[in-house]
């Protein structure tokens, strides 16, 4: 397996979540990268992964009595998982030489094929104190820190692959713009004629966010101080700044957004570029809970290696599916009660909402009209809502949202609320399988794709969401879940209108359906058959192979 010449694609990502014990991810982007590489391993794609080590992870989230988020560095044992390689390369930052080493992790697929992943690390005694911390903290620090990390990832990553003997790479896949400096390193290698075309021949780029703040930009003078003069200047700097997204767009032969709608939005944002779309997925075998997996083995055998097989989930007997869901729900509620003392009951309808806490995701939309929510809850006995999610350390409004929801616990009669600390892959897996409905309320068109709803779908949990991102493609009213707000995807979101629609659907469609477990189990089967069979990374990776890797 160690024949380096067999590897043709290098996948670059700032974060990756592939094992809950390895905290090198913050959220959706990283978990997607992990799921992608797992499917590449299962499908025997000749690929290698490159990322940073993040010795302190993103952060461990505590929430105090008042609902304030406290961020703690994550401690983990790198050498329990990875092996330090002897190779060292260097990059230049502010004129200093910064040494970079790499840890290797072998991601083994279900078929036995392995994907080598390289975790770059600058914590080497030869480096200055500041430089030694460059690969410590994911999305930590200031602009200097971020750009320095991007130098290590893009330029350092390319040099490391070369040093490791990967000479046959013919596609560099940039998962988001963080690694775009690799294009400059390629430019340097192709000094002379048709330099740009040669770089473009090698690069593909996936953009992940329609939110302008999600695109890294650095002022030109600042970049010059950090990196000196850049090659290919005219195209690299635009409007006197280095924009990582524009850099990646300019040097890529294939560019895509992560859902059909996100492709459209990206084409509007960057009209000079041909932007396609490949809709995201999740790794089926990772996200199906144990009790559901047992049922799938029985009724849709072969699903782990060929998730299309999940189309046959419609054949699962309702009673068995209902019981499997009850088991998942019990496991979740036991955890919630143990952690938060919320006293949740498995016979009560339970809503789940977990994602990064940031204003456009509107975690508080459910509480827009508390009286109305309370009336609905009383009419149907009671409602339980489980929240989780971290706010980025500089996102004050996101932190405010956590606090607001935290303080509503025990305040609304007949509505039990819990906010779980430290949302991570383990908690995500418990939540997406154990709740009855997965709620998502982004302001459109801000949600590029969203993937947690796909994880819920893999466990038969219907989605209740604004029509944005992947849900525009997965939504079939009353069959795979329910929409929130206008069905016309071009109508902008509005809190009053959207929450009114949400309450109406809860009262008239969702809670009545939940009263009849046969009706509910049929919906659950549709969710698996229609959505899990399609919104998985096996299908997604096959599209990348056809459109981006081997085209
Ligand atoms: C899947 C996942 C996400 C992404 O969820 P979205 O619906 O895309 O916001 C974030 N964090 C964790 C821990 C996840 O597992």
Over all CA atoms, what is the radius of gyration?
Answer: 23 Å
Alpha-carbon distance between the two ends: 25 Å
Strand content: 15-25%
How many individual helices?
A: 20
- With strands numbered from the N-terminus, the spatial order across the biggest sheet is 5-6-7-2-1-8-9-13-14
Supply the helix-strand structural class.
Answer: alpha/beta
Residue-averaged pLDDT: 96
Estimate the helix proportion, in percent: 25-40%
Unique bound compounds: pyridoxal-5'-phosphate
Question: Total strand count, please?
Answer: 20
Q: Provide the low-confidence segments as ranges.
A: none
CATH superfamily of the largest domain: Glycogen Phosphorylase B
What count of structural domains?
Answer: 2
Indicate the CATH class of the largest domain: Alpha Beta
Q: Which architecture of the largest domain would the CATH scheme give at its second level?
A: 3-Layer(aba) Sandwich
- Fold-level CATH name of the largest domain: Rossmann fold
What is the 3D form?
globular
The largest pleated sheet is described as: 9 strands, mixed
């Amino acid at each position: 397996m160690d024949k380096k010449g067999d590897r043709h694609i290098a996948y670059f990502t700032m974060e990756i979540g592939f094992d809950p014990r390895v905290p090198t991810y913050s959220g959706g982007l990283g978990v997607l990268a992990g799921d992608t590489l797992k499917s590449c391993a299962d499908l025997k794609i000749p690929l290698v992964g490159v990322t940073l080590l993040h010795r302190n992870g993103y952060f461990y989230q505590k929430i105090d009595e008042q609902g304030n988020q406290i961020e703690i560095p994550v401690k983990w044992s790198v050498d329990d998982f990875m092996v330090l390689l002897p190779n060292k390369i260097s990059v230049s930052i502010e004129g200093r030489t910064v040494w970079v080493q790499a840890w290797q992790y072998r991601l083994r697929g279900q078929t036995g094929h392995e994907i080598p992943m390289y975790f770059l690390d600058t914590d080497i005694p030869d480096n200055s104190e500041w430089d030694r911390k460059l690969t410590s903290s994911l999305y930590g620090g200031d602009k200097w820190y971020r750009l320095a990390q991007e130098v290590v990832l893009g330029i350092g990553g390319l040099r490391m692959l070369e040093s490791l003997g990967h000479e046959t790479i013919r596609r560099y896949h940039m998962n988001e713009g963080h690694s775009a400096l690799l294009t400059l390193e390629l430019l340097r290698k192709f000094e002379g004629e048709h330099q740009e075309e040669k770089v473009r021949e090698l690069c593909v780029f996936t953009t992940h966010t329609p939110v302008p703040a999600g695109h890294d930009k650095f002022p030109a003078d600042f970049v010059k101080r950090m990196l000196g003069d850049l090659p290919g200047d005219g195209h690299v700097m635009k409007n006197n700044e280095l924009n990582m997204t524009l850099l990646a767009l300019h040097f890529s032969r294939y560019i895509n957004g992560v859902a059909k709608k996100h492709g459209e939005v990206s084409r509007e944002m960057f009209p000079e570029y041909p932007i396609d779309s490949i809709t995201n997925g999740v790794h089926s075998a990772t996200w199906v809970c144990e009790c559901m997996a047992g049922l799938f083995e029985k009724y849709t055998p072969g699903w782990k290696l060929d998730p299309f097989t999940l189309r046959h989930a419609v054949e699962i007997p309702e009673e068995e599916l209902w019981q499997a869901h009850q088991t998942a729900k019990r496991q979740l509620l036991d955890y919630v009660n143990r952690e938060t003392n919320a006293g949740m009951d498995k016979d009560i309808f339970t809503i789940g909402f977990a994602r990064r806490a940031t204003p456009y995701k509107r975690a508080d939309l459910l509480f827009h009209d508390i009286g109305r929510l309370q009336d609905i809850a009383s009419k149907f006995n009671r409602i339980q809502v489980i929240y989780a999610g971290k706010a980025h350390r500089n996102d004050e409004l996101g932190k405010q949202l956590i606090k607001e929801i935290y303080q509503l616990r025990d305040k609304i009669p007949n509505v039990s609320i819990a906010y779980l600390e430290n949302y991570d892959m383990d908690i995500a897996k418990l939540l997406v399988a154990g709740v009855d409905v997965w709620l998502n309320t982004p302001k459109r068109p801000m949600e590029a794709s969203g993937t947690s709803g796909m994880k819920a779908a893999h466990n038969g949990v219907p989605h209740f969401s604004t029509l944005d991102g992947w849900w525009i493609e997965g939504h079939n009213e009353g069959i795979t879940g329910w929409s929130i707000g206008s069905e016309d995807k071009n109508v902008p979101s509005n809190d009053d209108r959207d929450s009114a629609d949400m309450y109406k659907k809860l009262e008239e469609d969702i809670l009545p359906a939940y009263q009849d477990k046969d009706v509910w189990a049929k919906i659950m089967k549709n969710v698996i058959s229609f959505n899990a069979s399609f919104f998985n990374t096996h299908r997604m990776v096959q599209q990348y192979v056809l459109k981006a890797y081997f085209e």
